[in-house]
Amino acid sequence: MHDGDSTMNGTELKASIRRIGQELGFAEIGVTRADPGAAVDGLRAWLADGLHGEMDYMARHLELRANPQQLQPGTITVISAAVDYLPHAKTTEAPAQAAISRYAQGRDYHKVVRSRLQKLATAIGELAGPFGYRVFSDSAPVMEVEFARQAGLGWRGKHTLLLSKQGSWRFLGEIYCDLPLPPDTPIDEHCGSCTRCLSACPTGAIIAPYKVDARRCISYLTIELAGAIPEEFRPLLGNRIYGCDDCQTCCPWNRFARLGDREFAPRHGLDSASLIELFAWSEAQFDERLAGNPIRRIGHERWLRNIAVALGNGPATVDALNALKMRADHPSALVREHVSWALKALGERN
Question: What is d(CA 141, CA 144) in angstroms, rounded to the nearest whole number?
């Protein structure tokens, strides 16, 4: 628990936290009270409409999201932090190439951001004395975008991600703590009448400004969904095998995005690999090459499921047909079904 002995006042401490955060590689740091406010009602309505699909944990952990003190007793303040991750300005256009969401091409951000926040918390303890805290980065039921918005790090874009004048290619992390720091002021929204993200979504998942139907979202379909990808969406996946960045790549604010931290530089050629190459990875190769990468958590079976669909959407080359045939009698019924769909799709196009 914070003992209050520190001679440093809240404003000075906050300035020090910002400075140390910058030294640790955070792009921005802000502070807000640990109260998500009206955003909780929005989340409740979204869940009530079933727009979360099979993400049961969203509903199960609603009260923890709504009440930070239940997650970390004594919490009165949220220190919100952002890290830039844009690896380069290149996007994947070639249909035979695998399109992997930029955030997942390098090291697992959960670990990188949490370890930096832990260093920041240790440094805060040296300045303020012992205090109660817990660090997060997309690792617990925390209303990250809302706290980042309240802390002045940006505004909620119409695609529901945090957006700032430096774009949206940013990871967020938080420190829940019991230090009485003065909160920052939220900034104004700057989306105006722009609806590019709504038009750019390949599956029409952004059903209204600030409202995403996860069940249609390619990130959900390729990452969160455990079973078969609904057939109506398969052709719309194109060559996207893990996540989708379309609502970000079209955003005018991302013209001002800064290149990200080297920690997130692409590994194993994930920014340029061909679908056939990745489809050939054995389960052991998948586990070994993607150690320390967020993709690993979907497992080899979903990886093959996703790539089969992408191959079915790609050019009907002899190599693509042969790659699919090699997996046609895979032990997993899920993989076999998507391979069979892809072979049929290529056959029809041939």
Answer: 9
For every one of its 350 residues, what pLDDT tens digit does the chain have, with 9 covering 90 and above? 555 444 579 999 999 999 999 999 999 999 999 999 999 999 999 999 999 999 999 999 999 999 999 999 999 999 999 999 987 766 656 899 999 999 999 999 999 999 999 999 999 999 999 999 999 999 899 999 999 999 999 999 999 999 999 999 999 999 999 999 999 999 999 999 999 999 999 999 999 999 999 999 999 999 999 999 999 999 999 999 999 999 999 999 999 999 898 889 999 999 999 999 999 999 999 999 999 999 999 999 999 999 999 999 999 999 999 999 999 999 999 999 999 999 999 999 87
Residues annotated catalytic, as ranges = 138
The pTM score is 0.94
251 annotated ligand-binding residue: yes
Q: Is 177 annotated as a binding residue?
A: no
Report how far residue 183's alpha carbon sits from residue 49's, in angstroms, rounded to the nearest whole number: 33
Instruction: Tell whether residue 138 is among the known ligand binding residues.
Output: yes
Domain boundaries, given as residue ranges, for the chain: 10-177, 221-247+266-349
Is 16 annotated in a binding site? The answer is no
- Strands, E, within 157-275: which ranges? 162-163, 170-177, 206-208, 211-212, 240-242
List the helix and strand counts (H, then E) for the chain.
Answer: 15, 10
Q: Which CATH number is 10-177's, of 3.40.1000, 1.10.860, 3.40.109, 1.20.1510?
A: 3.40.109
